[in-house]
Known about the structure:
Number of strands of chain A: 10
Helix content of chain A: 25-40%
Oligomer: homodimer
Number of helices of chain A: 7
Largest sheet of chain A: 5 strands, parallel
Number of domains of chain A: 2
Strand order of the largest sheet of chain A: 3-2-4-1-5
Amino acid sequence: MSGTLYGVGVGPGDPELITLKAARLIGAAEVVAYPAPDSGESFARSIAADLIPEAAVEVPIVIPMRVARFPAQEVYARASEEIGGHLAAGRDVVVLCEGDPFFYGSFMYLFDRLAGAHPVEVVPGVTSLAACAAVARRPLVARAEMLSVLPATMEDGARRARRGQGHAAAIMKVGRHLGRVRAAGEAAGALDRAVYVRHATLPQQEVMPLSDAPDAAPYFSMVLVPGNDPYAAS
Amino acid sequence: MSGTLYGVGVGPGDPELITLKAARLIGAAEVVAYPAPDSGESFARSIAADLIPEAAVEVPIVIPMRVARFPAQEVYARASEEIGGHLAAGRDVVVLCEGDPFFYGSFMYLFDRLAGAHPVEVVPGVTSLAACAAVARRPLVARAEMLSVLPATMEDGARRARRGQGHAAAIMKVGRHLGRVRAAGEAAGALDRAVYVRHATLPQQEVMPLSDAPDAAPYFSMVLVPGNDPYAAS
């Protein structure tokens, strides 16, 4: 009988923002997999570190930084084979996912390859989006407002951001695109209400007006533009 | 010395989707407040019920169904006075929020009135959006895609939904607007990939293609339109 593949959201960074269900599944895991950089610590693993049983088999999924799409897909193909082997042998596998598994996550690459042959359960987690709004103390979206979530890496991101004028927007994965995002915010007349957040809920967290943000931002940073609803700004 | 106001997300419905932090704060609460209908059970309270200490003072914030904006604001004004009294007396107050406090939540009405005078901490929670994607087994948004979140109550919701064609969309609070949402999905050519979810993560949860959804939907229901990215559809 096949084991179950669990895609488990571990939240934005603070280990206390793991759900009770995720904590239970991680604490009982026989096999734990997680994305990892080619050097240094896995962020997803670091969030859940205190919960991983000592006896668990660990499967780091090593994604070389700045690789093109197809080599990355080879990495997931190989990881799916390894994880599929554990599942076929009847062992449950818990995949740790930063934030939420299906919100800009890499879990979908394993899901696509394994869900046909094995039972899969997805355990939603707290997204970086909710975390950033909480630490920025800005209600993100209210009542009849629309929210646009767009990655800064999107080629026409600036244009699309302008379209959402008056409504709330969140720009993800800001990184080296910060200058362009700030210019778009200025052009849209949203610079006064836009907030820059990095490393939300972690000890090194920082929140500042977008106008004060540095030009070089880490990958895990976000720009929030609360809506114009009188109740969407604090 | 003032107590602290905690706005605590309790997640989408499954009590196990409460975070460790929320569980700790609720379990230690002296005063617990939550939105409640004028008859029947509070949904937020029902999610956290097993964690609320017996000795806690409970403050239901009773919102009459279908009231206009200004009477509802009177309800929050009165609740803020009551909660402000507890805070001024040095008692912490935990406000239970369905999903996440700042994602279409009513917590912002208390936050606006009390954050100037008292310490406030917002604890993010799992949104209904993440929960619906998880139970529908549909990666919500991938890589360089945009996600539009829009309430079905938005007057020009159908038009805006069409604009997001090719990208992912989530239509919240579907309720009695389901027929209109389905027509908009059909007009946008998205009916084949749109999914209807109600009561996600609760025992009575249902997931079905939008084309099969009934005309009358409960308030806590959602339509997900995954993006066109080859990795955004399962």
